[in-house]
Design a protein that fits this description.
Layout: E1 14-24, E2 27-35, E3 45-50, E4 55-60, E5 69-74, E6 79-82, E7 89-95, E8 101-107, E9 114-120, E10 128-129, E11 137-142, E12 147-152, E13 158-163, E14 169-174, E15 176-182, E16 188-195, E17 198-205, E18 210-216, E19 224-226, E20 232-236, E21 239-243, E22 252-256, E23 268-271, E24 274-280
């Protein structure tokens, strides 16, 4: 089986840079870039996700370790802690709708088997496999307490919607990118890689099984963030762009991160007036 994640020795070195991110009327202000993974320099730090205004969970290979684990940073106390410590590799920490657990992609030890697991936020117990019958999970986003959209690794990669209570799954579309986001109405945003030169952000509505075209990506990029007002934030090179499906006609450049040495924006996460971006070395 294909694997979307690679051995830790092959993972690229990367940093997490935190910014103030403010919007005043129609203008964005991106300032105060700060390195927040000082405890784990010269290693892999990736897939950041705000669980609340103060805590960022992310994937990292810690000093002396060979596999990825989940770590968290408290921005107020400026402290970090290790959340998972297993022989497997954990990726893509995501807060679940109940806010009592978080989900991760688990790559089983010495294999390419990837499953979706959950762990308690308070670290009071062990994790559990959410979908024993589903493997090849590369990325995911929760639609509601029962349903989760997953990127399934294959030839081709595909988007599925699965129900944790019934264990039922449904294929939505093939040839997708890794970026997945769901809004409060349960609509799923994803990147459809129509061909090598035509990557389009689309939106799937589970209530009527319809897919809508939103906008072509600004370059060949597949990572994006979805804000509360449905504005899509996406990077291309060192620049950040914004697009709102309700009123935008084209992407609007809202800032550049080049002065912080960021040349290729990939994963990003936004909460309130904070933005965290992955910077590859």
């Amino acid at each position: 089986m294909l694997s979307i994640h690679v051995a830790s020795g092959q993972l690229p070195k990367s940093d997490l840079i935190l910014f103030d991110f403010k919007k005043v009327n129609s203008e964005y202000f991106i300032t105060k870039g700060t390195l927040i993974n000082k405890f784990n320099l010269d290693s892999y730090n990736n897939q950041p996700s705000f669980f609340n205004a103060l805590n960022i969970y992310f994937t990292a290979v810690a000093p002396g370790k060979e596999q990825t684990d989940i770590f968290a940073i408290d921005l107020l106390r400026k402290k970090y802690w290790q959340v998972t410590d297993t022989p497997d590799g954990e990726y893509s920490p995501t807060l679940m709708p109940t806010k009592r657990h978080f989900s991760v992609i688990v790559q089983e030890e010495n294999t390419n088997i990837q499953r979706l697991w959950q762990f308690p936020i308070d670290q009071s117990g062990l994790g559990s496999d959410l979908f024993p019958g589903i493997t090849g999970v590369g990325y995911h986003t929760w639609v509601d307490r029962e349903r989760v959209a997953m990127f399934i690794v294959g030839e081709p990669n595909k988007l599925i919607l699965a129900n944790r209570n019934t264990q039922e799954q449904k294929t939505i579309v093939e040839e997708i990118g890794r970026g997945l986001k769901a809004n409060k109405r349960g609509l799923i945003y994803f990147v459809h890689k129509v061909n090598d030169e035509n990557w389009i952000i689309k939106r799937y509505d589970p209530s009527n099984n319809k897919i809508s075209t939103i906008v072509q990506t600004p370059g060949k990029t597949e990572d994006f963030e979805l804000m509360k007002d449905e504005t899509i934030i996406m990077g291309s090179g060192s620049d950040l762009y914004a697009f709102n499906p309700d009123f935008s006609k084209e992407w609007v450049k809202i800032g550049s991160l080049s002065e912080w040495g960021i040349e290729n924006i990939t994963r990003l996460s936004i909460f309130g007036e904070k933005l965290v971006v992955v910077s590859k070395k």
